[in-house]
Design a protein that fits this description.
The protein has one helix and eleven strands. By secondary structure, it is an all-beta fold.
Length: 145
């Protein structure tokens, strides 16, 4: 899959090299800041009556063979460790659909990530798309925070 062409992956979002600390986010944005590549959802009302924000990310297969891709989101813990993305009630802040894709040769599919914070806190997670039985290192996994 395409794992480094951020303009293609985030074709429906803004892609920045870094966030400006003097200008708060007003829209959902992806930043290509090293060492982490991070997608930022703009602030939302926790437990609000409004529709939770959703963003679509493009997963592309540039090769001559079809591929199956597994999609997951894992919450980052205080020490950076991955753990199940859920609050104390078991409600996840992030949800991804679909969790698996079949992408024919030279085609793409979209996955949707929904952000539904359950309280006033900073929510961080890692998005991962992995090609099943992928052997080509640069294209077998897409991951960002």
């Amino acid at each position: 899959i395409v794992a480094s062409n951020f303009a293609s992956i985030f074709e429906e979002q803004s892609v920045l090299t870094r966030l400006d600390p003097l200008h708060p986010l007003s829209a959902n944005t992806f930043t290509v800041e090293e060492p982490e590549r991070v997608f930022h959802f703009a602030p939302v009302v926790a437990n609000g009556k409004t529709t939770p924000p959703k963003e679509r990310f493009r997963i592309s297969n540039p090769y001559k063979v079809p591929c199956n891709v597994s999609i997951s989101i894992t919450k980052k813990g205080a020490g950076g460790e991955a753990k199940k993305d859920a609050d104390a009630k078991g409600t996840p802040a992030f949800a991804v659909t679909p969790e698996a894709l079949h992408i024919p040769p030279h085609e793409h599919r979209f996955v949707t990530v929904q952000f539904t914070p359950q309280g006033l806190s900073t929510c961080t997670a890692t998005f991962t798309a992995v090609v099943e039985r992928g052997t080509h290192e640069p294209s077998k996994m897409l991951t960002f925070g």
